Amino acid sequence: MKEVLIRLDRCLGCKSCQLACAVQHSQSKNLVQAIGETPPPQNRVHVTKGEINPLPVQCRHCQEAPCVDACMTGALHYDSQGLVVLDNHRCTGCWMCIMTCPFGAVTPGNSAKLAVKCDRCPDLAQPACVTACPTKSLVFADPADLAKEVREQLAWQVTQQK
Fold first, then answer.
1. Of 83, 117, 138, 157, whose CB is crowded by the most CB atoms within 10 A?
2. CA distances (Å), 152 to each of 51, 139, 148, 158, in order?
3. Which domains does the chain have, with CATH numbers?
4. 159: number of Cβ within 10 Å
5. 1 with 81: CB under 8 angstroms?
6. How far is CA 39 from the centre of its chain?
7. Adjacent-strand bridge partners of 115
8. Which of these, 47, 19, 21, 1, lies nearest to 143 by C-alpha position?
9. Which residues of the chain have pLDDT under 70?
10. What own/partner pairs with CB < 8 Å and gap ≥ 24 does 102-110 have?
11. How far apart are CA 16 and CA 111, in angstroms?
């Protein structure tokens, strides 16, 4: 299954992913119009300053998600593909998910007492954050395929150095 993976050595901290995410989750789906929307659109990926490189952080859709275990109402649950999804109608804003997420990927919503997290842009072929990343730091791929690609690139670089 494809996942949003991060190539840390490529992230510049430009926050294009955050902007694209906010626009995708806006009412208008248009940058110019989204700026004036009430409530303002909220991104679900957060670029934070790492010790060496910036780090884009979003829900990792953990196989054993602490947020799902902590959600007393069942608002956070696994869908048929194994993704952690949020049912806004069941969320009571107790913030147990925020307290238990080891990545800080679940945040309070702007407009209501509801949690907000990455939904992987289910209406798109790949998440908006991945499409918007100018350095291809964010990749939507099968982890095994990306690992193979990285190994092949490394092997090519080593042979070029000789």
1. 138
2. 28, 17, 6, 10
3. 3-58+118-161 (3.30.70), 61-102 (3.30.70.20)
4. 8
5. yes
6. 21
7. 108
8. 1
9. 162
10. 102/66, 103/57, 103/59, 103/60, 104/46, 104/57, 105/44, 105/46, 105/57, 105/58, 105/59, 105/60, 106/59, 106/67, 107/42, 107/44, 107/46, 109/42, 110/39, 110/40, 110/42
11. 23
Q: Which two tokens stand for residue 107?
A: 């945040």
Structure tokens that stand for 17 in this block: 């992913």
**How far, in Å, CA of 66 to CA of 46, rounded?**
19
- As a whole number of angstroms, the distance between CA 145 and CA 117 comes to 26
d(CA 115, CA 87): 10
Per the listing, tokens 């956070």 go with: 76
pLDDT at 158: 85
Nearest to 5 by CA among 127, 151, 134: 127
What letter would DSSP give residue 93? -
DSSP 117-146: -----TTSSS-HHHHH-TT--EEEE-HHHH
Token pair 């949690």 in the structure block, residue: 115
